[in-house]
Each structure stands twice: as structure tokens, then as C-alpha cells.
Design brief:
The protein has a domain at about 5-55 and about 150-315: 3-Layer(aba) Sandwich (Beta-lactamase), CATH 3.40.710. The protein has twelve helices and twelve strands. It has helices at about 45-55, 60-70, 75-90, 105-115, 125-140, 155-165, 185-200, 205-215, 215-220, 225-235, 270-280, 290-295, and strands spanning about 5, 10-15, 20, 30, 40, 170-175, 180-185, 240, 245-250, 255-260, 300-305, 305-315. Strands 4-3-10-9-8 form a five-stranded antiparallel β-sheet, sandwiched between helices. A four-stranded antiparallel β-sheet has the order 2-1-12-11. The chain has a three-stranded antiparallel β-sheet with strand order 5-7-6. A hairpin with a 2-residue loop joins strand 1 and strand 2 (about 10-15). Helix 2 crosses helix 8 (about 205-215), helix 3 runs parallel beside helix 5 and helix 11 (about 270-280) runs antiparallel to helix 12. The radius of gyration is 19 Å and the shape is globular.
Length: about 325
């Protein structure tokens, strides 16, 4: 069990799933559920995908590299960044193969609807990754029209890099919600991969991705998202959420974690993340805002317009 939903003192619902936490030396410090069984990490794989793209010749840095690893909210600066990546490669949003969507950010979504617009590819939350994949193909001299094919040279290279960083073979290849190939690894492998990113030597593709994401957290998610708030609250924290209740993260010294909420809901993700960070000793990280972490973890359960309970992490 990872979390309980408490309403009026009564345990109303339960969230279960696999979880792994690694100590700074890479040993398993905490484990729950089938932590060695493969799962689809969904967008938690994006930092590893971005590292693979850098290895293949992608030329991005700073905010735009963070955007390549993002599940962005579709705010104006995200959309400008996606178009900038595409334009530098001689491409447009018409080359994107992610599905049309509205922004995740409510204000951005409302603005589009009020202006008479609708879903498009550039506002889809994975468009940064897709733009980077296209730019990588241009840099490597690979075809762009087939970049989402699992047998495309880029996707084969991504599979190899994810396996290398996770320290285990990719167990299955599926199709992500955005249409790109999706590689299955365990939550322990996910934690190992994030650990490898933060501990990589300065200037390597892996470390460049970690540094870009940590320097520009709003570019990896959005200005109002809990992912950005978590990274801001803990100096050196690298974190990336995925759909269906997945989280992967690492502290600067190599302590790392990964989990998947088995039923796929996201509501318990932040409480479980904060509980796992505390279990791994985040309190000793210089500058960590522990009060802010507790605030983020306090997900209320409401009734009649009042707070009548909470979502409580259990990790048992």
C-alpha cells in the first residue's frame, strides 16, 4: 500500500503499487510491492529519451533542453519554445506526430477556447519531446516522417540508452499517449536511471539533461504544477512525473526513487513522493524547504465545501 484516502476519519480508498528508494551508494534502501516487475514509466522516461537524443547529435541546451524532457502545460513560453526547436531544424508544427490537444494549463486552455481556437499539436504536452525528436533526426540525417516508428534509428538508440541507464533490459515496447514508442522498465530501474543522470560527469548528455531540468523546472512542467514546486523546494532535485501515477526522481548525491500507483490515478502522487523523499533523508539536504514539501503533500479531501480528510502516504 502506498496511500490511503481518509474521509471523516474513515479509510475510503486505497492506492497500491510498486516503489523503490535507493541510497546514495545505489543500494536499495526501501522497497514495496513488485519493485522489480516492469511497468510503463510513461513521461518519467523523458529525461532518458532526451539524453539519448543528445548522444545522437541533438543540439539543445538550457530552457529548450528542459522542454525536450517536458510534459509541458501549454503556456505561451512553452509553445514559443517548441516552435523555436522546430524552426531551427527547418521544420514546423505540421511535422509533429503527437495528437492535437488543448493545453494542460487552465488559463491557457481558456484563452484558446475564448479566442475560438481548439486542440492542436503544438499545445499537446509532449510536443517538446516530439519537436526534439524531429530536430535530432535532422541533425543525424535520419528520416523525419517515420520518427515514431519503434524500428526508427532514433527509437532504437533511445531503447538502448534507457536500458543502459536503468541497468536492466527493456521488457516491452508500447505506444505512449503521444504516439511515440514507450519502453517498459521496473520502478527500481527507473530510480537507477534518475540516479545515473544526476551522477553523470559534468558536460555529458545525461548530466546536461539533469542540469537543464533542475535549472528550469517550469519548462519541464508549468508555472503552477507540483513538479516544478517540488524541484524548487529541494535544491538539486531532479524529478519527472508520468501518466498513470508514475514518479521518478533523484537527489544530487544519488539518492533516488521511483514508483507507480497501480490504479493509475495521480491524486496520491505528491503525498507519496514527499513521503519517499523524507524516507530517503531529504531533511539533510541543504536549503530544502521542508515546510513547503509538507504543504504540497497535504492533498485535501473535501465534503460540502469543507476539508473533511486527506490523502495520506503509507509506504507499507
Amino acid at each position: 500500500m502506498l496511500a490511503q484516502v481518509i474521509r471523516s476519519g474513515f479509510v475510503e480508498s486505497l492506492h497500491r503499487g510498486p516503489l523503490a528508494g535507493l541510497a546514495a551508494d545505489g543500494s536499495v534502501q526501501v522497497s514495496a510491492g513488485l519493485a522489480g516487475a516492469p511497468v510503463f514509466p510513461r513521461s518519467s522516461n523523458k529525461p532518458m529519451q532526451a539524453a539519448a537524443m543528445l548522444r545522437c547529435g541533438l543540439r539543445l541546451d538550457g530552457e529548450l533542453l528542459a522542454l525536450a524532457a517536458a510534459s509541458h502545460s501549454g503556456e505561451d513560453f512553452h509553445v514559443r519554445g517548441v516552435r523555436q526547436i522546430l524552426a531551427a531544424a527547418g521544420l514546423t508544427e505540421h511535422d509533429l506526430q503527437c495528437p492535437p490537444d488543448l493545453p494542460l494549463d487552465e488559463q491557457a486552455q481558456r484563452a484558446i477556447i475564448l479566442a475560438g481556437g481548439g486542440p492542436d499539436r503544438v499545445h499537446m504536452n509532449c510536443s517538446g519531446k516530439h519537436a526534439a525528436m524531429l530536430a535530432c533526426c535532422v541533425a543525424a540525417g535520419w528520416p523525419t516522417a517515420s520518427y515514431t516508428d519503434p524500428e526508427h534509428p532514433l527509437q532504437l538508440r533511445i531503447r538502448q540508452v534507457i536500458s543502459e541507464l536503468a541497468g536492466e533490459p527493456v521488457a516491452a515496447v508500447g505506444v505512449d499517449g503521444c504516439g511515440a514508442p514507450l519502453m517498459a522498465i521496473s520502478v527500481t530501474g527507473l530510480a537507477r536511471a534518475f540516479r545515473a543522470l544526476v551522477l553523470a560527469a559534468a558536460g555529458t548528455p545525461e548530466r546536461r539533461v539533469a542540469d537543464a531540468m533542475r535549472a528550469h523546472p517550469a519548462w519541464t512542467s508549468g508555472t503552477t504544477r507540483p513538479e516544478a514546486a517540488l524541484m524548487t523546494a529541494v535544491p538539486g532535485l531532479l524529478l519527472k512525473s508520468g501518466a498513470e501515477g508514475v514518479e521518478g526522481f533523484a537527489l544530487a548525491d544519488g539518492r533516488a526513487g521511483g514508483f507507480k500507483i497501480e490504479d493509475g490515478t495521480a491524486r496520491a502522487r505528491v503525498p507519496v513522493t514527499v513521503a519517499l523523499l523524507r524516507e530517503l533523508g531529504v531533511a539533510d539536504v541543504a536549503g530544502a524547504d521542508l515546510a513547503r514539501l509538507d504543504e504540497l503533500a497535504a492533498v485535501p479531501v473535501s465534503g460540502g465545501g469543507l476539508v473533511v480528510g486527506e490523502i495520506r502516504a503509507v509506504l507499507s
